[in-house]
Every structure is written in structure tokens, then in C-alpha cells.
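ESCALATION

Customer reports they have been waiting on this structure for their group meeting. Please prioritize. Original submission:
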Amino acid sequence: MPVLSFFISLSVSLSLGTFIKGPNQTIEFGKSASLWCGLDEGFETCQWTTPDDTSCRFESESDPCLVKPDFHLNPEPFHGKTNCSIAMPTVNDMHNGEWQCKLDNSPTENLDLYVAKRAKISLGAGFPNEGPLFFVADRPMNLTCNATNGRPKGKFRWEIVEKGSRKAVRERSKLQTLHFVPQESHDGATLKCIYEQRNKDKGLIFKPLPGASITLKATYIRQEALHQIPSDAKVGNIVEITSEYEADPMPKAEDILVEIVHGEEKVIQVSVKDSEHEDYSLSLISDECTSTVTFTIKDIKGEEMSKNHNLIIKYPSSNLAPEVFPLRLNISNMEPKTSDSWIARWMPTLIIIIIIGIGIVGFVFFYRKQQSDSTSQAERPEQTLPLHQEDPSQVNAQSAL
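Update from on-call: job pushed to the front of the queue and completed.
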């Protein structure tokens, strides 16, 4: 059977001539293109079918074609009727795909027209919306570059430009998402994402563009000192914990807060602007290079030892995780157990109440004693004293008379 097919095709070839056609093409969107096919012994009719399966049949160079997408017969190669060439002045998405050419009764031949579109490049996840890309040296970053509306699919390439010298980023630099470990030397350099679209012969379809780029900016936050005043706090004291740190650029006041966590209870956050908090306050003093944050516990209790206090300082860009510095308390005089805490808290008040009570009882006792003495004196019988006592001799004399 294969032998029979071979002889049939050979007889067709000998009777109709040898079919010839142009190469498959990759054309940039919006540019002009042409396709051609032919028979070395000539032909009478030529028919082209578009990727949308619409057709035009030509018998002379003056025959019109009114189908979509737009194309027309190229008259010059048609002379002699050995070559049927069509032209497309401006290719678009409708021209993209498989075209079919049929000459007389010859078998249909396919030609591919690939309409290439330059992809739109943009910086994606891991990059800020504007401004430089802040980084902390030796801290890994995952950066994503996006390519949309492109055809054919291309490959990503990353570069770093430092003071005019261009270096390829070696860490997975051909992937859409770059795993990047910046160094201090990258401060001020430019990171570029390049998207290359190539044809089947590995050649670049489009002239290279600058690509998407961003300036790299090093940043850091380092804690220099941590102090507690008083250093050996007691229950009931006002305690201040100061943290001195260096940063570049210096964080804003709204980027600084203290987070307090007690077991599984909800988190308490204290900011510099939160001056109305009942138990805590936070203040900031800054100059060009250093800052001092003071966290104040207004009335320290023993239960503060079981809480986690963390100073959180945010970087100027949301793509970097904030720095977290633990604030460790030192309390020497712990609060009594929970069952005795009520007595300890109210003991001064109880003592004052007892003293006032003793005073009131003493006053009442004294007052009642005074009243009792007055009453008993009033009830004692009165003694009648003689107004005048006569001489006994006179009394006797008067009796003799």
C-alpha cells in the first residue's frame, strides 16, 4: 500500500509539476508581510485560505479579495503564473496562524505566519510602587518581573548595572521570579529585568529595549544600646526602657511602636502618638543618624514579667520585614500571689481606715464618759447647810431666863 501511494503522488507531481512555497515567517505586529506558493510548470488558478477559514480564489492579478483579514494578490510575481504571492500591508492578530495555498487541483500546502507582539514589561511582587528598592545587605529577596500581551513567549534575564559596568545576576537569573541576595556594593546600582522573545531560529525578534529597571538603595536599622531606669525595678515603680539605634534612612515616628503580648491574649500596640494609654507610653528623640525610643510603664506590676515587650521599627519600604528588638524587664520585688494581691493593694487604705476608726471610737468613749459623769452628779442628794450657827453659852443663858 505505501508503494502504491508513492506512485500515485509521483504521478500527480509529474502531471501537475513540482509545488514550491516560501518559508514560514515571523512578523512583528503592525508590519507588512507576504506569503507565496507556486508550481514550476505554471497554474491557472490560485486559492488562499486564511486562519479563520475564509478563502479567496484568483485567476488574474486584477481579481479582488474582500475577506478578512485583509490581504491582496501581489501582481508582479503572478506574471507567468508560476508563483502566487499575497501581500498583507499591516498584520494583526487575525493574520496570525496557518495559511493554506492551493494551485489548480494540486494538494493544499500549509504556511505558518506568526505575528509576534512585543510584551509589556513591568516590575511585580517584591518591588515598591515608586521610588528606589530598599534592601538590607545579605537579606534574601524574591523579586518578580511581569511580561504581558507578548507573542511568542520569551525568557527573562536580570542584570545589575554598577557605575556603568553591566553584570548578569547569576542567582536563578533566567526565571520570572529572581531570588536575590543583595550586597552592600549594590547600593546605588540599577537592577534591570529584560524579556527576550526569539524566533524558531533563536534569533531576537525585537530590538532590545531598556527593560524594566529600578535603583537599589541600601538601608539598615541597628540597635546600639538598651537601658532600664531604674535598673532594678520594684512593683509600683515607674519604669523607663530606652533603646538607642542607628538607621539610614531614619524611620518616621509612625513607623515605630511597642507590641505587648500576654500569653494568648490580644496584642496591645503602643505608638508614639498614643499618649492616652492608661498603662504605657512611648516617646522618640531623633537626630540625623541616631534615635532614642523611650518606653514607659507607668505602674509596673509583677505580671509584666510574664509579658513579651517588643520594639518594632519599620523600614521605609513595605517590601522589607520590620526589625524586632525584645525589651527585657528586670523586676526584683515581685508582686504577691494573686490571692493576696487585693490585700497588698488596699493595705495603706485599710491602715488609714483603722486609725480613723480608733479615733472615732476613742472620741465616742470620751464623750459618753463625760456625759455619764455629768448625769451622776446631777442625781446626788442636796445637803442643807445652816445659815448661822449660834453660841451655845448664849443659848443656855436664854434658857435660864
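Sent to customer with the following note: Residues 1-15, 335-340, 382-389, 395-401 have pLDDT under 50 and may be disordered.
Escalation resolved.
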